[in-house]
């Protein structure tokens, strides 16, 4: 295979950002633990998992999302905030090529 035009990156490639609304429900705790386990199990591709907890404060979660994407998060996930409040953040993420889930 000729790799003249392809660069191979050594080590894990992805930094994943997860903006958690809060841990007030047991299903959120289970989901967070599942995410942490999946990142650990796929350490060959996940360089770092960045997790924030907004404590059920929409303004804090918006700030968390901005922080996660500025710290190199290549994927963003959110919970709870009404979609209309996230339009500016989702557009900024899309402009940077960051997949957006939520």
Outline the structure in words:
It is a single chain. With 102 residues, this protein is of the alpha/beta class. It has one domain. Helix content is 41%, strand content 20%. The longest helix is centred in the first third of the chain and has 16 residues. It is flat. It starts with 13 loop residues before the first strand and ends with a strand.
Structural classification: alpha/beta
User: Which strand order does the major sheet show?
Assistant: 2-1-3-4
The tally of domains stands at 1
Rg calc: 15 Å
The residue-averaged pLDDT reads 76
SSE pattern: EHEHEHE
Brief synopsis:
With about 100 residues, the chain is α/β, with parallel strands linked by helices.
Write the layout of secondary structure elements.
Elements lengths: L13 E7 L5 H16 L4 E8 L4 H13 L5 E3 L4 H13 L4 E2 L1
Parallel strand pairs: 1-2, 1-3, 3-4
Helix pairs in contact: 2-3
Please supply descriptive tags for the structure shown above.
102 residues, alpha/beta, 4-stranded parallel β-sheet, 3 helices, flat
